[in-house]
Amino acid sequence: MKKDGYSINKTEMGKRIREARKKARLTQENLGDACNVSDVAISRYENGQVTPRLITLVAIASATQTPIEWFFDMPINQNNMDEYNAALHKIHDLCLSLSLADLEYVITFLDRISNH
User: Fold this and answer.
1) How far apart are CA 10 and CA 17, in angstroms?
2) Phi/psi zone of residue 36: left (φ > 0), alpha (ψ -120 to 50 degrees), beta?
3) How far is 108 from 6, CA to CA, in rounded Å?
């Protein structure tokens, strides 16, 4: 699927999640624990069976110290990378302090703005 100049490909995203996890020297269980999902979910992401929710992908990017654009096959602008990563870490840290109801609200909001 192409949208706004980037592509979303479950198979390619899965390969990139696996590569990032291995580069970070994490097991599927370690990564799942860091992202509050099961190791089975990580396996399904890596095999291209399921695309992770945005909040989970942010957590995967944070746990593996990988720019989130890399999972989407987006060009990376090195000039803005530090600022972008800082913003992702701030989002991640803020999400950790939210209640489940508030987190669902944030996810809904992010899903809506990402579809524009």
Assistant:
1) 10
2) left
3) 21
8 A C-beta contact, residue 39 and residue 32 = yes
- Tens-digit pLDDT profile for residues 94-106: 888 888 888 888 8
Cβ neighbours of residue 54 under 8 Å, at least 6 residues apart?
107, 110, 111, 114
| pTM as predicted | 0.61
Chain length of the chain: 116
pLDDT digits (tens, 9 = 90+) for 56-83: 999 999 999 998 888 876 655 656 667 7
Token readout for 69 is: 């654009």
Closest CA to 7 of 72, 71, 51: 72
Report the candidate in 79, 84, 59 with the shortest Cα–Cα distance to residue 69: 84
Is the separation of the CB atoms in 64 and 87 below 8 Å?
Answer: no
> For position 9, what pLDDT does the model report?
81
